[in-house]
Design a protein that fits this description.
Blueprint lengths: L3 H19 L18 H20 L10 H5 L23 H19 L5 H30 L24 E4 L2 E5 L15 E5 L2 E4 L5 H9 L11 H9 L8 E4 L2 E6 L3 E4 L11 H10 L7 H7 L9 E7 L25 E4 L16 E3 L8 E2 L5
Parallel strand pairs: 8-11
Antiparallel strand pairs: 1-4, 2-3, 5-6, 6-7, 8-9, 9-10
Helix pairs in contact: 1-5, 2-4, 2-5
Length: about 400
Amino acid sequence: MIAIENLVEFFNETRAHTENICKPLEIEDYVVQPIAHVSPPKWHLGHTTWFFEEFILKHHKQGYTLFSEDFAFVFNSYYESVGKRVVRTDRGNLSRPTVDQVYAYRKYVTQALQELLEEEITPTVKKLLTIGIHHEKQHQELLVTDIKYILGNNPLTPIYGGELRFRESEKGTQPSFISIREGVYEIGHTGKEFCYDNELGRHKVYLHDYEISNKLVTNDEWIAFIEAGGYQETLLWHAEGWDWVNTHEITAPMYWHLVDDQWHQYTLNNGLQKINPDDTLVHISYYEAFAFAQWKGMRLPTEFEWEVASSQLDWGDRWEWTESSYLPYPGYTKEEGSLGEYNGKFMVNQKVLRGGSVATPSKHTRHTYRNFFQTGLRWQFTGLRLAK
């Protein structure tokens, strides 16, 4: 378990980084919600603050006074057991509270937490604080991807202008397949470092012989898929995926634009740019990942195959779609109380992604981390790795 001094430093560092992500934004950017699953930056700033107030300060800081009686309603996300909340699709209608008020709220709660942490805190508070920090780190990644969606759907395709530094695509490594022998392997988190409850329930799985690619799929491979008519070939797709392609008129990954017969893509740091064929593919749905694997005569790895092979993989550039449904591990138990809504309630109609991405903040990824999203979503930094 992390020492309290280091935990306080971790807390302060996390709170500061969230605000640094928002520094390049104009006031008008803070409230935009172009689509239901993309939340306004202002809402992320408030929600991550409400989490600390609701789960720690209200119950563990003597004499604590809420910053505003209205903010629990405004900044609750999906915690039904905590109280009523603004409908997700209405977050973009919140012109009030103002951005200045939200930053004042953050300062108020951060200072109250810092005061509490100067006292002798209980193991319960320490645990809640750790969860709250990692919860905010999750929202830092969502902030980056939501900002990209907001700016990337602006007709002017503006440059973000922040200090985000994305890793260069891996160069020089020749594509090949890593062979894993059949056998019984252990899956799940072990040790005393932080993890989420959905990583627990370490258990054995039997895997057949398989091979997994040492590299993620690149842009030039995807262009070949497009040019071969992959988006028009119904036999490559799940029925639901085929409906998704046709309903939304999907012809390329998100942020790809055909300009004068040449593919371009919107990037945060450089705006609209010609696609580099050697770069790692990004912003695809599970449906697309599955269809591409079918076209290649291969498949997606399961999350268990991915975890077993992870020590031999260069991972962390893209969240990698797997063929595994998001389900509980054997013996899974939810957190007690309202925090039990954090992961368990979403274990239906989702696919697991592994690995982390270039937008994942530091100190927030590990080879047992189980991310999960619905099959048609692709605004995160998602890609794929082939298996056979």
